[in-house]
């Protein structure tokens, strides 16, 4: 739990981070030795922060008074060690990448990178490399086809993929009609903004195969369902989450026999590859015959199979701090306040030269919906007990779904007490939450701990697919969220849809 909550205006975190940088630089509170030795682009960053991000100016953008911004900056700079961190709350906006960049720069500015108690860089296990793919002319021709998300990928300089665009590509037959698709434990009909588009797209695919351990909305549109085992019944391996620093590999091995006739996703892939034969089969020849064999193949460079199964974990050497030349993967081998990586990507994409575009900054964006008609901003969130696709079919997870409120078997719209009073809404009263795209009926939860201009709904409920414990429970906020993307990465923006709330 936080010692202090600062009720920032939604989507302005990047502006706040840059204003904090302004104070740290102008008052000489930054780590001069680290900045000089292990960063580049500081002069451009300094000029931008000092010229455009004074606390007095940014107070009007963020809703945080200048004195508070200055106090936060001094507290952060003088506390050693300290971390400035960000998650989906900052990233889930059209300006999320730039805002995250700005926040992370505060760690570099104060020298809190790769030091005990500061930001650590993830060290990953050195798994055995996958062999090269054996490719024939059919494979080359197929891989030469444009990607389903390529229609929008060119708009986003750093995009690896824009998954939510695929639904539109299927519906519009761009760049080509989709004749067959396979889904592996995914459920975009629940998890993506603009869920109805996915329903319509899946209906349109002539032949769709779905692989998953649980029934889901996407599975309802499948021509064939291949049931997979649950995590308690399956083989696999995993490593430490980003941010822990230490290199670690963990085995997943079955603790019970499969209850039903299921096959793991690797088993299905191996079986299909074998039946296809030719170069497809050759590409899988040396990496095992099934899920267990594949785990053995990938981890055999780390630890013996018998020891791995007995201990359940491989741990790498102790973390070595301040190995800066190894952790910074940039062209300069230093932390870049001015990103040469982004500069090169934008040049290759044919973007116009723009110094600010290669620096962290407050990237202005548009809300979806008119402020006069839709005065509130809907910010969805992921509760602790939304574990994975199908977790709402666990009765114990449903019973404690919103454990911080003491509520289960439902979700609700959280609304500020002053805002609720103005709208004549009482706690637990049924209300409509309406966006420019759709509306949902849901109980209100009147609280003080939310910005007066924001309402919030937990995701994970609102399933319409069969499932003894999930169907018909609560609502899905993604049903009323519009489709938009991060300006840099192309990831879905979840938090910039405007709504209005009124009594049902």
The CATH architecture of the largest domain? 3-Layer(aba) Sandwich
Task: Tell me the domain tally.
Answer: 3
Q: What oligomeric state do the depicted chains represent?
A: single chain
Shape: globular
Give the count of helical stretches. 20
Biggest beta sheet attributes: 6 strands, mixed, barrel
What does the secondary structure layout of this molecule look like, with pairings?
Elements: H1 13-26, H2 32-38, E1 39-40, H3 42-52, H4 55-62, H5 66-78, H6 88-91, H7 96-109, H8 137-143, H9 150-153, H10 165-172, E2 180-184, H11 188-191, H12 195-204, E3 207-212, E4 224-227, E5 236-239, E6 248-252, H13 265-276, H14 278-283, H15 291-299, H16 305-311, E7 313-315, H17 324-327, E8 335-336, H18 340-348, E9 376-378, H19 395-399, E10 413-416, H20 417-423, E11 430-434, E12 439-447, E13 454-457, E14 497-503
Parallel strand pairs: 1-8, 2-3, 3-4, 9-13, 10-12
Antiparallel strand pairs: 5-6, 6-7, 9-14, 10-13, 11-12, 11-14
Which structural traits does this protein have?
6-stranded mixed beta barrel, 3 domains, 504 residues, Barwin-like endoglucanases, 20 helices, Rossmann fold, single chain, alpha/beta
Describe the 3D structure:
The chain is α/β, with parallel strands linked by helices and 504 residues long. It has three domains: 13-120 and 327-358, Dimethylsulfoxide Reductase, domain 2 (3-Layer(aba) Sandwich), CATH 3.40.228; 137-315, Rossmann fold; 376-503, Beta Barrel (Barwin-like endoglucanases). It is 32% helix and 12% strand. It contains 20 helices and 14 strands. It has helices spanning 13-26, 32-38, 42-52, 55-62, 66-78, 88-91, 96-109, 137-143, 150-153, 165-172, 188-191, 195-204, 265-276, 278-283, 291-299, 305-311, 324-327, 340-348, 395-399, 417-423, and strands at residues 39-40, 180-184, 207-212, 224-227, 236-239, 248-252, 313-315, 335-336, 376-378, 413-416, 430-434, 439-447, 454-457, 497-503. The chain has a six-stranded mixed beta barrel. A hairpin with an 8-residue loop joins strand 5 (236-239) and strand 6 (248-252). The longest helix has 14 residues, at 13-26. The model has no long low-confidence stretch (mean pLDDT 92).
């Amino acid at each position: 739990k936080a010692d202090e909550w600062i009720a920032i205006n939604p989507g302005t975190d990047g502006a706040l981070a840059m204003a904090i940088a302004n104070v740290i630089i102008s008052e000489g509170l930054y780590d001069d030795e680290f900045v000089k030795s292990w960063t580049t682009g500081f002069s451009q960053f300094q000029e931008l922060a000092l010229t455009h991000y004074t606390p007095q100016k940014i107070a009007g953008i963020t809703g945080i008074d200048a004195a508070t911004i200055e106090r936060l900056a001094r507290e952060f700079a003088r506390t050693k060690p300290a971390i400035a961190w960000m998650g989906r709350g900052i990233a889930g906006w059209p300006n999320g990448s730039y805002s995250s960049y700005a926040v992370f720069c505060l760690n570099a500015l104060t020298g809190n990178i790769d030091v005990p108690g500061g930001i650590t860089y993830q060290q990953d296990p050195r798994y055995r490399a996958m062999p090269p793919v054996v490719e024939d002319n059919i494979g080359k021709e197929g891989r030469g086809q444009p990607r389903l998300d390529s229609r929008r990928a060119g708009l986003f300089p750093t995009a690896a993929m824009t998954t939510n665009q695929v639904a539109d590509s299927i519906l519009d037959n761009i760049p080509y009609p989709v004749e067959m698709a396979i889904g592996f434990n995914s459920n975009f009909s629940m998890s993506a903004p603009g869920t109805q588009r996915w329903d319509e797209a899946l209906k349109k695919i002539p032949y769709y195969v779905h692989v998953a351990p649980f029934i889901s909305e996407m599975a309802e549109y499948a021509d064939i369902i291949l049931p997979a085992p649950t995590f308690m019944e399956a083989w696999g391996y995993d490593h430490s989450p980003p941010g822990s620093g230490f290199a670690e590999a963990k085995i997943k091995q079955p603790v019970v026999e499969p209850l039903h006739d299921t096959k793991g996703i690797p088993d299905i892939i191996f079986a299909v590859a074998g039946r296809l034969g030719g170069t497809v089969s050759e590409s899988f020849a040396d990496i095992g015959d099934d899920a267990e064999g594949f785990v053995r193949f990938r981890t055999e460079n780390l630890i013996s199979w018998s020891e791995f199964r007995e201990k359940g974990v491989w741990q790498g050497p102790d973390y070595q701090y301040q190995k800066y030349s190894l952790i910074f993967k940039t062209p300069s081998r230093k932390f870049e306040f001015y990103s040469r990586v982004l500069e090169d990507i934008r040049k290759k994409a044919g973007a116009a030269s723009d110094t600010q575009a290669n620096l962290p900054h407050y990237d202005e964006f548009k809300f979806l919906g008119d402020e006069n008609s839709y005065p509130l901003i809907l910010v969805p969130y992921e509760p602790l007990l939304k574990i994975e696709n199908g977790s709402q079919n666990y009765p114990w997870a449903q019973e404690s779904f919103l454990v911080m409120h003491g509520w289960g078997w439902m979700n609700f719209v959280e609304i500020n007490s002053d805002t609720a009073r103005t709208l004549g809404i009482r706690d637990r009263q049924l209300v409509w939450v309406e966006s420019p795209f759709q509306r949902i009926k849901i109980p209100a939860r009147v609280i003080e701990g939310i910005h007066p201009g924001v309402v919030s709904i937990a995701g994970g409920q609102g399933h319409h697919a069969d499932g003894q414990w999930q169907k018909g429970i609560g609502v899905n906020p993604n049903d009323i969220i519009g489709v938009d993307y991060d300006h840099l990465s192309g990831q879905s923006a979840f938090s910039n849809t405007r709504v209005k709330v009124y009594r049902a």
